[in-house]
Specification:
There is one protein chain. The chain is an alpha/beta fold. It folds into two domains: 3-318, NagB/RpiA/CoA transferase-like (Rossmann fold, 3-Layer(aba) Sandwich), CATH 3.40.50.10420; 426-495, no CATH class. It contains 23 helices and ten strands. The strands form two sheets. A six-stranded parallel β-sheet has the order 1-10-7-4-2-3, with helices on both faces. The termini are far apart.
Length: 498
């Protein structure tokens, strides 16, 4: 298979980028989880503060954002060419490149490679270790491997917490952001073999427990699966950016390394990393630089993995690429800055989005990859107040609010084509009635005559409950007490004129 298939937009196979239930329905349930909301508010507030401090240190921050955006725009314009260049350079250096149209193909390729290079253990199963990877979560790799007798062990601490807790990630960068250290201790005591029963919830003790748990896997497992933050077309180089050192262990110790990379992660030149290595750590963790950044290019005899494979994943990306306006969602460098400033994400958490891509970027990326008519993905573009904070925070200037509006329009048009008419709601009817009243001075004057009675009946506590569609407003807020008279009445009384 080659890059030529990119000319036809693809539809994702099975995976974890389709919202199974409408966002409003799930969000309402998540809002009731007080501990989760407390954990999220504390964590996102801390990350926001660190990011602002690190960004303020860079006098040319806006110029860096402009350059990062320009590079990603150029990548989208030249994507087939750059992918072929990348494939050529990986192959020339002893690596192997595999093309996967969707989740099913990617999972099949990886499973075959693991079966070729990982021995069957006494348990009758095979094992692989993994570096944190959004792409493998997107395709549901762990679940697929488990079904065919392969156990995939997450080595990133947050991913390990999620895996041991039989949970789902709720954040791109910090998958276990919804858990506090007391909950993590309970998970370790319950699920981690040979853990010290006197383990405390001190972060240092928890990190040490995870290191002991993973050390044997690092030293004994011959196959690793990684994601990639960047792939360099010019050299065939791959890069993983992380902060714990587990990535370094995974990409150097095993004999076989399988990297799953979304096709949009390509950069043209190694020199382009100079911009992104400044944008990414400051935007994601509020650090000046990453603790661990690993690069590898093909195979080096006697040093590192000797079987190097790269799976280039489409899974709907050519569909997004074909959208003239939506393709900028593929600029995303997975920093999570948009989530950390989003008031909707902070209150509902990542699980409400269904997809492995939560928050503002998930609200546009998932529908663009799958179409708004996949599952309940048509509800994701409405998971926003359109406040614009995500655009201000995005290091590559993805205009998320604009795309949310466009996707809402696409959803409306899709439903109109199916039914032959535009969908109408209670809100539409209410707004039509309000427009009719407010468009005529006499009708408005008649409506204003009810203000004295409304003022009297409401009292100083305001309006706590309204019927019908208006009840959605008072469900979470109280309207102030209506005035005793309208401005029109006051003017007539004070000035004697209309």
């Amino acid at each position: 298979m080659s890059v030529t298939h990119l000319g036809m937009p693809t539809v994702p196979g099975k995976g974890n980028i389709v919202e199974p239930s409408p966002f409003p329905q799930v969000a309402e349930l998540e809002l009731g989880k007080i501990q989760m909301r407390t954990n999220l508010a504390r964590a996102t507030s801390t990350i926001r503060g660190k990011r602002l401090a690190r960004v303020a240190e860079v006098p040319n921050w806006e110029e860096l954002r402009d350059h990062g955006s320009a590079v990603k725009t150029a990548v989208m314009d030249r994507l087939p060419e750059l992918l072929e260049q990348f494939e050529h350079n990986v192959t020339a250096r002893g690596g192997h490149v595999h093309w996967a149209r969707d989740a099913d193909e990617a999972n099949a390729i990886i499973a075959r490679l693991v079966e070729e290079h990982a021995p069957v253990l006494d348990t009758g199963r095979r094992e692989v270790i993994k570096v944190k990877s959004m792409a493998t979560q997107e395709i549901g790799l762990n679940e697929h491997l488990e079904e065919i007798g392969i156990d995939a062990y997450e080595t990133d601490l947050a991913e390990l917490i999620v895996q041991l807790g039989h949970d789902r990630p709720s954040h791109i960068l910090v998958p276990a952001i919804h858990r506090n250290r007391r909950e993590i201790r309970e998970i370790f005591l319950r699920e981690m073999p040979d853990v010290d029963p006197d383990l405390t919830d001190d972060p240092t003790a928890l990190a040490e427990a995870s290191r002991k748990h993973l050390r044997r896997k690092f030293l004994s497992t011959p196959v690793a699966v990684s994601g990639a933050n960047f792939g360099i077309a010019e050299t065939g180089t791959l890069s993983v950016v992380e902060s714990e050192g587990n990535g370094r262990m995974c990409v150097t110790l095993p004999e076989t390394l399988i990297t799953v990379m979304g096709i949009e992660k390509i950069l043209p030149r190694f020199a382009d990393l100079g911009t992104f290595m400044q944008l990414l750590p400051r935007s994601s963790t509020g650090e000046r630089m990453n603790p661990y950044t690993s690069f590898w290019t093909g195979v080096t005899p006697g040093d590192g993995p000797q079987n190097v494979h790269v799976v280039l994943l489409d899974n709907g990306r050519t569909r997004a690429l074909a959208d003239e306006h939506g393709r900028q969602a593929l600029h995303c460098i997975r920093c999570s800055a948009c989530m950390n400033v989003c008031p909707v994400y902070e209150r509902t958490g990542g699980h409400a989005y269904g997809s492995v891509y939560p928050g503002p970027i998930g609200a546009i990326l998932s529908p663009l990859l799958t179409g708004t008519d996949a599952g309940a993905n048509d509800t994701l573009p409405y998971a926003s107040s359109l406040c614009g904070a995500c655009y201000d925070a995005c290091p590559v200037k993805i205009d998320i609010p604009q795309m949310l509006v466009r996707l809402r329009n696409e959803d409306t048009e899709t439903k109109a084509r199916k039914t032959g008419r535009l969908p109408r709601t209670q809100l539409d009817a209410a707004l039509t009635a309000a427009s009719w009243v407010m468009s005529d001075g006499r009708r408005m004057a008649v409506a204003e005559k009810s203000l004295p009675l409304a003022h009297l009946l409401t009292g100083s506590e305001g309006i706590r409950s309204l019927p019908g569609v208006a009840g959605k407003w008072t469900h979470s807020r109280t309207l102030p007490q209506p005035p005793e008279q309208s401005f029109r009445s006051w003017w007539k009384k004070e000035r004697g004129t209309r």
